[in-house]
Amino acid sequence: MTLHQKERQIIVKNQYVDSFDFDEIEEFIRSASKDLFISHKFKNSDTTLVQPRGGFPTYQKQFELYEEFEKADIDVMPLTIDSHTRLNDYGSAKKMLDLSEANEVDMLNGYPLVNHGYRTTRKMTTHFNRPVSLRHGTPDARLLIETALASGIFEIEGGPITYLLPYSKNFPLDKAFLYWKYVERVCADYSRLNEPINRESFGPLTATLVPPCVTIVIQLLEMLLSLEEGVKSFSVSFAQSGSVTQDAVMANVIRKMADFYAKKIGIEDATINLVYHQWMGAFPRNKEFSDSLINSSSFIARLVRADKIIIKTRDESFGIPTMQCNAQSVANTKYTFRVLKGLPLIIDEEEEENLTKEVHSIMEAVFNDSADTLWRKVFNSIKNGIIDVPFSPHVINHNNVITIRDEHSNIRIIERGNMPISDDCLTYEKSKVKLSEDKTAVINKIIEDIGVMHE
Amino acid sequence: MTLHQKERQIIVKNQYVDSFDFDEIEEFIRSASKDLFISHKFKNSDTTLVQPRGGFPTYQKQFELYEEFEKADIDVMPLTIDSHTRLNDYGSAKKMLDLSEANEVDMLNGYPLVNHGYRTTRKMTTHFNRPVSLRHGTPDARLLIETALASGIFEIEGGPITYLLPYSKNFPLDKAFLYWKYVERVCADYSRLNEPINRESFGPLTATLVPPCVTIVIQLLEMLLSLEEGVKSFSVSFAQSGSVTQDAVMANVIRKMADFYAKKIGIEDATINLVYHQWMGAFPRNKEFSDSLINSSSFIARLVRADKIIIKTRDESFGIPTMQCNAQSVANTKYTFRVLKGLPLIIDEEEEENLTKEVHSIMEAVFNDSADTLWRKVFNSIKNGIIDVPFSPHVINHNNVITIRDEHSNIRIIERGNMPISDDCLTYEKSKVKLSEDKTAVINKIIEDIGVMHE
Amino acid sequence: MYKVVTGVVGNDIHVVANRLIDISLQARGFEVFNLGVNTYLEEFIDAVVETDADVLLISSLNGEAEGWCRELQFLMAEYELKDVTFVIGGNLSVGESKDEDLVKKYQSYGFDLVFHQIELNDGLDQLEEFLGKKS
Amino acid sequence: MYKVVTGVVGNDIHVVANRLIDISLQARGFEVFNLGVNTYLEEFIDAVVETDADVLLISSLNGEAEGWCRELQFLMAEYELKDVTFVIGGNLSVGESKDEDLVKKYQSYGFDLVFHQIELNDGLDQLEEFLGKKS
Ligand code: B12
Ligand code: B12
Predict the structure, then answer these.
(1) What is the best residue among C56, C62, C111 to mutate for testing ligand 1's pocket, by most ligand atoms within 8 Å of CB?
(2) Fewest CB within a 10 Å sphere: which of A280, C88, C113, C133?
(3) Considering only the top CATH level, what class is C3-134?
(4) 3-class secondary structure per residue, chain B
(5) pLDDT tens, C20-33?
(6) ipTM of the complex in this document
(7) Domain residue spans of chain D
(8) Which residues of D touch A (CB under 8 A)?
């Protein structure tokens, strides 16, 4: 028995979990319908696939949500996991699930997949026969992903960095890398049986003034860590920045860089897709305006030619949306995609050059770290602030990079912290903003920039 | 007494109209608040002004509509005229106005300005103190415009071509030119007293598969006819075409051509603005989708850097919108304009070159007509099909130009009729569409193209 | 072969549907006399009498139909147009209205078939069915 | 100078408001002990006891507050925290809820001030007013 196998056996033995029948699971995946695989759907689609978010505590309600989505002709079904499960707190999840079932009040903000188990959940995925994407935010997602894959969920979002720095305060980063290495390997293994399992990184991070170079570097690193383990279908992603031009620049640069770095580590047979997140920051408190914002995001997704869009709802600033509201959002976005035609290609050479330089210098610094493996290099780079995510709640993150919006709402770096971007690049970034000397003025500007989409 | 003065006295003597006090009117315009002049507002604004449509039969309801619009912080108030008034049928308008007042049911699709008179209407415009734009569709608008200007309405939409070919079946085109010459002159005269009166052409025409070159040529010709008479502030306009690229191309070309032809007739001191109409064709029968369509239009208006946008509502395919619905549309568009930042400039050289050539060749043919005045040249050009507007209900219009959408939804000319565009240009246009030989297939494609924004 | 007089009533110049109606009626084998847009009720009636039409199919899009069509009943009586089928369709009110109310109202004016915001082909299917039953 | 312990309760990691609250409280002259996100009720109470704080100001954004805050009443009794002002704010339910119902519920758990979807500065104004009246 390999080490990996041993680890696996330990993981799936858990008081909240029914026994795993791995032979049966392999057989299931081998003969699963191609329609369950988003990697298959990507190959055969020439528009932007539409995926909402959505997870309810009970099976029944999740099923009803999928029924609503089906009516709206959704492309990719979401399965959002509740935050207890995300922190591996299956006990609390169970307690709240029971309460939800008993009282018809949702006591969880997502679907507690581990508690429901794969035997139950698979009934749902195969019934609807559309790709399901797992959205969680879990640093140690090993059990969760085993359960997901066994359930017929063949897209797994997340990664050691993107699901840790925005989603956790204390979880040890080195452990996260190892746990995700496990996830990558399981995905890679199952990918040999049928269409490839798709892995997707979570580009939005904290969704709060994250500079493009940080997003892209993290996307590239999670992609490389995944490809290293044998994953063959990977999605890089980012969220609406607040500036249409900056979105286009990011899309163009990330696509080029993904190719470049995949080749650099010798991988040429993987498919890389681009996912765009509708505005992930603070939403307006007005539902009509939220609809407008959502539609503008959809427009940008088409402008930047994203392969998939992950959408929000008009309820975003209020709470978990009702299923009808969520399905309506799907229908609206699909309508916009159907009628929005003749989209120009947007290129901004100066911005793309600057961003490319920033990305290369950070990537170079990561590769130059003295550690022996890529994940250790990345770990060290985060620890010493070479990678620094604004507004991360995590203790390891430096929080020394400061960004602000310029007059076109582009996110600009005004303090680079330990991030190794060149003086030239920093000068370029700073040249775009008129900086006040007054510190409280800067703080007020940042608060304003966080609320940039408010009424 | 000049001929013009005599004409004027005849016009304002009408059984449905109170006497005009021209001295008082001049004094009113001379001392009118600058805020009533859109020409003033254009000068002092760096975003896209928002203007809805809206006209109710009774003064009371029109006033309430303006109150709603004011709450939504509207930029330009609309005054849409009912269709009886448009056909100078003040008798029917009066009958229906009386019925509307008696029964609280709207029996007119707009505000019967002539029946209400300038003394009453002026109370409303000065009360709200924002620019008002007159939307009508009237070939003989002489009395209407005298009433409008006297009411404090300082933007007059329309023109001899754009308000005739889409809006009338039998009205004599030559008369329309003369009647509009009168309107231009009155506008030019009053422009000397305070800020300039703004004239605006109606670019959408029939809103049904009109090719860009036809729209632009007609915009340019109405502009020239207006500038000739001394108007100093003019807006050219066009409606969302269905292709984002084609919209950008039209905006870029129309701006350049407007400058070029104004100079060509020796006018350098007039201000030309660009107005964009949200989708003017058939709307979806779904209100949510209509909202999406409307927001996409707003997005495009900003992309093409329009100086003003004229908006629709989610009720478009159903009927005249309620005032709340209309005001909501204003608020939504203003929200989108506030938060939509970092817009790239879109340029498509090949398309712009082709369109420029088409415009020049039609304009050349018009100028080469043997008649002595510009309006007669234009008259002849329409009569002999050098200018030909698809789906015009007017008897003089040839209806021989046939257009169809290419795969990016650009409108392409497949039959040029008598329009003098070069073989090269026609070949270019046709090269973009895969044409079926089958005639009913073409008809079905046209029907589909008319419903291009349907669900 | 049924003869049908069609057009758009009153001061209404929305021509697009009218062009499609012309094509569709012809495709269904009707003999079509299309008076186009901006046609008054008297003109319609004259054309019906002149062509000895079986059907008068009126469109109205700009919301004004009611004002123009109230008088149909008087004209019908005057000209004794008993065998003609009267049809109206399009957008039959200013603003939004309840379908049933509208249908009743127009029926009281003398229309046999009333299609407010109904797809053209659905309406024409119903017309053919109606004519079939009648004969 | 009032002492205030603040942080985000439970498994909630929404940190942005927490950073702004820290800045705002300091700007208003409070002495702030910010425990950050992902803080459990016991940790809050420990910090209140340890720092002898006047105010405990809890944020919750991810909708889970209810599950975590029911036990406040027991802990209050256990530690005899009579003079402390208990405040909670943010987004206090999963999905949308009626404000009044929520306020009552959280008051029954022992909170003095409950701010569901209330602007930060409005809430802090009310807090200062409340503290003023109390002293
Ligand atoms: C294009 C358009 C115009 C163009 C028309 C160009 C032209 N000459 O044709 C322009 C810009 C010039 C225009 C002008 C005006 N318009 Co207009 N226009 C439209 C618009 C956007 C699309 C109409 C269209 O071409 N549709 C495509 C065709 C194929 O569809 P259709 O007309 O809806 O017809 C379908 C059905 O109704 C049905 N049908 C029609 N007749 C019949 C008959 C039978 C028997 C059956 C079964 C079915 C049937 O079949 C057709 C195919 O499915 C509509 C709103 C909409 N629908 O989205 C407004 C609309 C019709 N217009 C309207 C108005 C008020 C006007 C104006 C008075 C003023 C204004 N606000 O601008 C003037 C009219 C002046 C006049 N004298 O009539 C209103 C009518 C309001 C109402 N009914 O309550 C509408 C609904 C817009 C609105 N919400 O305010 N318009
Ligand atoms: C950015 C964001 C994230 C980022 C957070 C990054 C980070 N580490 O901070 C990411 C993407 C990582 C994230 C993750 C999740 N999120 Co989140 N997130 C948001 C979002 C879009 C904005 C939050 C924000 O930063 N706002 C800006 C700050 C300044 O405003 P604020 O937080 O609203 O706080 C204001 C007021 O609430 C008030 N306030 C706050 N506390 C207090 C206290 C007092 C006393 C007073 C007076 C006022 C007050 O003052 C602040 C300033 O005005 C909101 C939705 C929205 N509001 O638009 C969802 C939202 C909060 N998230 C939600 C959820 C469910 C989650 C997840 C569980 C799962 C998911 N669906 O992705 C995970 C959480 C994991 C976990 N363990 O908690 C839900 C909560 C649902 C509910 N309450 O019913 C929301 C509402 C979205 C939604 N509609 O589903 N999220």
Answers:
(1) C62
(2) C133
(3) alpha beta
(4) CCHHHHHHHHHHCCCCCCCCCHHHHHHHHHCCCHHHCHHHHHHCCCCCEEECCCCCCCHHHHHHHHHHHHHCCCCCEEEECCHHHHCCCHHHHHHHHHHHHHHCCCCCCCCCHHHHCHHHHHHHHHHHCCCEEEECCCCCCHHHHHHHHHHCCCEEECCCCCCCCCCCCCCCHHHHHHHHHHHHHHHHHHHCCCCCCEEECCCCCCCCCCCHHHHHHHHHHHHHHHHHCCCCEEEEEEECCCEHHHHHHHHHHHHHHHHHHHHHCCCCCCEEEEEEECCCCCCCCCHHHHHHHHHHHHHHHHHCCCCEEECCCCCCCCCCCCHHHHHHHHHHHHHHHHHCECCCCCCCHHHHHHHHHHHHHHHHHHHHCCCCCHHHHHHHHHHCCCCCCCCCCCCCCCCCCEEEECCCCCEEEEECCCCCCCHHHHHHHHHCCCCCCCHHHHHHHHHHHHCCCCC
(5) 999 999 999 999 99
(6) 0.94
(7) 3-134
(8) 11-13, 15-16, 19-20, 23, 36-38, 62-64, 66-67, 91, 93-97, 117
